């Protein structure tokens, strides 16, 4: 909920390869009142149907403004399709099964503001098919990293968002992906607690770097049964939240603020690294907001050693843009009739077309479905020429 990531990308089918050229990306901030209301709506907080309606509308309006800005500033005023992952406010999992997921951001506001068709609600169909609706990042990672992995030394993509997730790409096999646990969620909760609501108190992880890991708290946190569950699995901020943190420190000797943050950094680094090493990672590529935290990245590199740690930026895909590029990819695949959920990652009973399409100003005219399997994604340095294949 730090902001709305926007990316403009040209996509084109080229046989079994999907070519993607990133034109640009930006982050648009939520209006302060909307951001605070979204944070305040997270479980276990009570949220009335009226408040939910207002948030669904306000988030949709914020997405619409961000889309208009992206089209104007990054696309020369022209685009063909918008895709939105929405803002997750609830993700219900019980006994390893996802019972439902809710993303806010009414897509009709985006369609009205841009005049373009909008593909949204991209997780629900996978959940209806028995999956977790996450991590959909595996759709991008399996194509993007296909040429960088082998069966004995997989490439592992790590997303350090509020919740951390990994995608294991081993070449011939279908990808394995799952949420490893908290990325920045508990760190954000702790910073808000000790700063009375500010999230900029620990910029660049400086406070955490001054602290010492409290082994008693780390052991308590690592005892969470989630880490021992077998994938596919997913979790969310309804589990890893401030109340969870307060229960964890209950009964322990007083903990200094810097030590609390240092311990939570170590928790994220330990759980992510353990998951990567369990799959014999040959290389690890990180993205998400957590890569901007040098203290977290240093802890993760230490835990992974000697496996090399790099970022998606190093491979040509800006980490700040990756999730927005994922949204564009998912929308593009749905538009062309291509299932976009890897069942081996989400746990769904089979491949499914994802999302719902809200028409723009013109009637919907979808292209004929693309029938050839897509096995690879290639990032291009320049914009694709118009008319050079399916775009």
Automatic annotation (TrEMBL):
NCBIfam families: PRK09585.2-6 (NF007146)
Gene3D superfamilies named among the record's database cross-references: 3.30.420.40
GO MF term set: ATP binding; kinase activity; phosphotransferase activity, alcohol group as acceptor
Keywords, alphabetical: Kinase, Transferase
Gene transcribed to yield this protein: anmK
Name used for this protein in its record: Anhydro-N-acetylmuramic acid kinase
One Pfam family recorded for the sequence: AnmK
GO biological process: amino sugar metabolic process; peptidoglycan turnover
Protein species of origin: Gandjariella thermophila
InterPro entries: Anhydro_N_Ac-Mur_kinase (IPR005338), ATPase_NBD (IPR043129)
């Amino acid at each position: 909920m730090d902001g709305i990531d926007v990316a403009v990308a040209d996509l084109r089918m080229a046989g079994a390869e999907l070519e993607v050229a990133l034109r640009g990306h930006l982050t648009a901030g939520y209006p302060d009142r909307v951001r605070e209301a979204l944070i305040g709506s997270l479980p276990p907080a009570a949220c009335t149907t009226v408040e939910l309606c207002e948030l669904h509308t306000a988030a949709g309006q914020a997405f619409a403004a961000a889309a208009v800005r992206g089209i104007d500033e990054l696309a020369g005023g022209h685009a063909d399709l918008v895709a939105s992952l929405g803002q997750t406010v609830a993700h219900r999992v019980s006994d390893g099964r996802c019972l439902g997921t809710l993303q806010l951001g009414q897509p009709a506001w985006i369609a009205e503001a841009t005049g373009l068709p909008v593909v949204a609600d991209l997780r629900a169909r996978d959940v209806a098919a028995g999956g977790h609706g996450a991590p959909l990042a595996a759709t991008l990672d399996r194509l993007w990293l296909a040429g960088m992995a082998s069966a004995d030394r997989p490439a592992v993509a790590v997303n350090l968002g509020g919740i951390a997730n990994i995608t294991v790409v081993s070449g011939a096999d279908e990808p394995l992906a799952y949420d490893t646990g908290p990325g920045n969620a508990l760190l954000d909760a702790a910073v808000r607690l000790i700063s009375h609501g500010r999230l900029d108190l620990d910029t660049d992880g400086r406070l955490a770097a001054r602290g010492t890991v409290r082994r008693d708290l780390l052991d308590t946190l690592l005892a969470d049964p989630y880490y021992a569950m077998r994938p596919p699995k997913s979790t969310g901020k309804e589990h890893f939240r401030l109340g969870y943190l307060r229960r964890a420190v209950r009964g322990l000797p007083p903990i200094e603020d810097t030590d609390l943050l240092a311990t939570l950094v170590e928790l994220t680094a330990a759980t992510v690294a353990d998951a990567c090493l369990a799959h014999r990672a040959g290389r690890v590529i990180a993205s998400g907001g957590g890569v901007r935290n040098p203290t977290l990245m240093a802890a993760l590199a230490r835990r992974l050693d000697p496996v090399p740690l790099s970022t998606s930026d190093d491979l040509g895909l800006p980490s700040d843009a990756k999730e927005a590029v994922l949204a564009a990819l998912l929308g593009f695949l749905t538009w062309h009739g291509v299932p976009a959920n890897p069942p081996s990652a989400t746990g769904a009973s089979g491949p499914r077309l994802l999302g719902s399409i809200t028409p723009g100003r013109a009637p919907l005219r979808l292209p004929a479905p693309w029938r050839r399997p897509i096995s690879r994604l290639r990032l291009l340095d320049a914009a694709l020429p118009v008319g050079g294949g399916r775009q």
